[in-house]
Amino acid sequence: MSIYKKILVAIDLTEEAPQVLNKAIEISKAHGAELMLVHVVEPVGYAYGGDIPMDLTELQDQLDKAAKEQLAGYGEKYDVGKDNQIVTVGRPESEIHRLSEEQSVDLVIVGSHGRKGFQLLLGSTANGVLHGTVCDVLAVRIQ
Predict the structure, then answer these.
(1) Is the pLDDT of residue 121 over 50?
(2) Burial (CB count <10 Å: 0-12, 13-18, 19+), residue 36
(3) β partners of residue 122
(4) CA angle at residue 143 from 26 to 28, to 5 degrees?
(5) Alpha-carbon distance 67 to 54, whole Å?
(6) Would you call 22 helix, strand, or coil by DSSP?
(7) Cα–Cα dist 32/27, whole Å
(8) pTM for the whole thing?
(9) What mean pLDDT comes out for the span 83-102?
């Protein structure tokens, strides 16, 4: 009996995403686990300071649409069905925590850049996911 039945893979849709996905595929196959892909789009207001007096709805919709298209491409390439592809808007750490609980996930996999100083082992998102997630978390080192 496997300890991991459902794995959530949080990716940032950059050229580094395949490194995380390849590791996730290996682990899911080894455990016979269901794989879910998630990408969190941060609200445009966060990126632009939040106090600009303009309607950014159209820009947010474009970002969401582009993220869904990119995630669907990864889903097709890595054989992850549409039902297991999630694009959501919010703070990455909070959304990953929420989804991992809602979906009864056993393992969350995130990418991690090796940074210097305080963020030496984990990037800020990976660190945020680690602290507060109720299941195991695997940080895949991005080369």
Answers:
(1) no
(2) buried
(3) none
(4) 10
(5) 23
(6) helix
(7) 8
(8) 0.83
(9) 94
